[in-house]
Design a protein that fits this description.
The complex is a heterodimer. Chain A is of the alpha+beta class. In chain A, 43% of the residues lie in helices and 21% in strands. Chain A starts with a helix and ends with a helix. The two termini of chain B are 23 Å apart. Chain B is mainly α. Chain B has one domain. Classes of the chains: A alpha+beta, B mainly alpha.
Chain lengths: 202, 220
């Protein structure tokens, strides 16, 4: 092969490799919009709302309420654990703000992912933030399989923090009247939740 | 080192990285995963790739840049936090990652490196080292936790280690250049036809690069 021919071959191969590399990295990040699993989850949920599985919620009063009982009205959810020292306090505060911000027809639901959260602990969390059902219910799911199914469906990832607590991808979850998870917001983004609900209502 | 020995060592590295007790420990912490398991898998594939190039790389110098680029892209893909998380969550992605780090990252990187001339090698390093440093810096300065499956402390530690590694490679390269040794690189296709074993030999003869592109080959 002549030197020039080999040079052209090298150029063509390199260009092809560059195109493939670009396609791989663009495809792997949704065109640069999702470098993290968190961003990917939000894009995915916004594009294709997810029906949430049925679970039975137990609140501090001992009442058992199926998640499907919330159908017919919008619902804002968060996933917390009662002894959380930081992130869940942010989430709790966000819910306090939503409690005053959102119209009466919208329900708030704080779901614990910690199997150790009993009615007493749930009560601490509810009292700390002034949560009162039916507007704002703090609840745990007794059945481990059902709890895991809901967390997996919503894309909630919980890992031990190495100090007896948990680290989790904290967020605010908007569920529509049909029981579908339609949007995920940052823990501080109460305005985003309000605006999304207003847009839906309008 | 004979090609077969080299490939066998590569296979050993891959097996070590995937051995359940070792893999479990390496995958439990983000820095161990990225700077422990990834390099073992990539090096394993690269040794096999270099051995392949030694045996069958004659006249294939044109493929060096493409192979390095493709291998780097696959390695880069698995550094994306989204896919680090996906590999933790889904066993299928974890398997695909192990396979592709060996076959689609390591193998072409070893092949391409063995066939690359000194200019291409230098160009590849000059891109890889800043990339390592910049991604390490991002891991340090981004306020958010980038991987849902790992603690932010792990992310910061990986960032610091990547910066340190980039600095170490840079210092080593500068010292070597100042020491005045010849740049290392594969021999030309022309010389490969004459001599054997022609490429990637540590005692490559002193030569200046006179090829027109300066990439992929050099002439004695």
């Amino acid at each position: 092969m002549a030197e020039g021919g080999r040079g052209r071959l090298a150029g063509a191969a390199t260009a092809a490799a560059a195109a493939a590399a670009l396609a791989l990295l663009a495809g792997g990040t949704a065109g640069g919009r999702a470098f993290t699993a968190e961003a990917a989850r939000r894009l995915d949920i916004a594009a294709a709302p997810r029906a949430l599985p049925e679970v039975v919620l137990g609140d501090p009063t001992g009442a058992l309420v199926p998640l499907s009982a919330y159908r017919g009205h919008p619902l804002v959810m968060e996933f917390v654990y009662a002894t959380c020292p930081d992130l869940c306090l942010t989430l709790g505060t966000a819910f306090e703000r939503l409690d005053t911000l959102l119209p009466a027809g919208v329900a708030l639901l704080s779901v614990s992912f910690d199997p150790a959260d009993d009615t007493e602990r749930l009560g601490w969390f509810a009292d700390r933030h002034g949560a009162r059902p039916p507007r704002w219910r703090v609840a745990a799911i007794a059945d481990p399989a059902a709890r895991e199914a809901l967390l997996a469906r919503a894309g909630v990832v919980v890992i031990p923090d190495g100090a007896g607590g948990f680290v989790h991808n904290a967020a605010l979850y908007l569920v529509d009247g049909a029981g579908r998870l339609v949007a995920v917001f940052d823990p501080e983004d109460t305005e985003g939740v309000r605006a999304a609900l207003a847009a839906d209502a309008g | 080192m004979r090609a077969r020995t080299q490939a066998a060592i590569g296979a050993g590295l891959v097996l070590l990285a995937l051995l359940p007790p070792v893999a479990g420990r390496l995958e439990a912490r983000l820095p161990l995963q990225v700077l422990g398991q990834y390099p073992l898998l990539v090096a394993g594939g690269a040794l096999a790739g270099a051995a392949l190039a030694r045996r069958h790389g004659r006249g294939a110098g044109w493929s060096a840049a493409a192979a390095l680029l493709a291998g780097a892209a696959v390695l880069g893909f698995w550094m994306i936090p989204r896919w680090i998380d996906a590999a933790v969550a889904l066993p299928s992605v974890r398997t695909l990652r192990a396979l592709s780090l060996v076959l689609a990252a390591g193998l072409p990187l070893g092949w391409g490196w063995a066939l690359a001339g000194p200019v291409l090698r230098g160009f590849a390093l000059a891109n890889a080292v800043p990339m390592l440093a910049v991604t390490g810096w991002i891991l340090l300065v981004v306020p958010a936790r980038l991987c849902n499956s790992f603690l932010v402390e792990d992310q910061r530690l990986l960032g610091r280690l990547q910066l340190a590694l980039a600095l170490a490679i840079l210092v080593a390269a500068v010292l070597r250049a100042l020491a005045g040794g010849p740049a290392q690189g594969a021999a030309t296709d022309r010389r490969m036809r004459r001599a054997s074993p022609p490429i990637a030999s540590p005692q490559a003869p002193r030569a200046t690069n006179t090829s027109p592109s300066g990439i992929g080959s050099r002439k004695p």
